[in-house]
Amino acid sequence: VQLVESGGALVQPGGTLRLSCTASEFPFSTAIMRWVRQAPGKERETVAEINWTGASINYADSVKGRFTISRDNARKTLYLQMNSLKPEDTAVYYCNGNGHWGQGTQVTVSS
Fold first, then answer.
1. Hey, which residues does 5 pair with through a beta bridge?
2. What does the longest C-alpha to C-alpha distance in the chain come to?
3. Residue 16 CB-density burial (10 A; 0-12 exposed, 13-18 middle, 19+ buried)
4. For 54-81, how does the pLDDT look when each residue is reduced to its tens digit (9 = 90+)?
5. Within 13 A of 75's CA, how many CA atoms are on the CB side?
6. Of 90, 23, 40, 89, which Cα lies nearest the Cα of 60?
7. Residue 84 carries which DSSP code?
8. What is the mean pLDDT, run by run of 10 residues, along the chain of 111 residues?
9. Element (H, E) at 23
């Protein structure tokens, strides 16, 4: 099983990023998928969750209205569009599903 995240970067406050997570050897099309982040010294936080059809989506209050989770089951890829980024969004972002985790991608929001 492999979940591979990409798209993390250093970005200025107010900027945008799009994270991707590509799955292999994994039943992606039937899995509830999540983006989870962890900042230094802080608890892990589930940022967004999407069911297998994309019809049920939930966001953490801290990102509502700024982040959008989506998926492409044919490409076995999960996305997180992040707009209006804030310094407090700085964290390692992980892709999670069916108990499996990716290696994470670093997002740093700083001027």
1. 21
2. 40
3. exposed
4. 999 999 999 999 999 999 999 999 999 9
5. 10
6. 89
7. S
8. 94 98 91 96 96 96 98 96 98 95 97 95
9. strand 17-24
76 contacts 23 by C-beta, under 8 angstroms? yes
The token pair that represents 18 in the structure block = 């799009």
| Cβ-based burial of 88 (10 A; exposed 0-12, middle 13-18, buried ≥19) | exposed
Q: How many other C-beta atoms can be found within 10 angstroms of the C-beta atom of residue 87?
A: 11
Q: Please name the amino acid found at residue 63.
A: V
> In this structure, what token pair is assigned to residue 22?
């590509």
The per-residue b/e assignment along 33-50, b for 16 or more CB within 10 angstroms, e otherwise, is: bbbbbeeeeeeeeebbbb
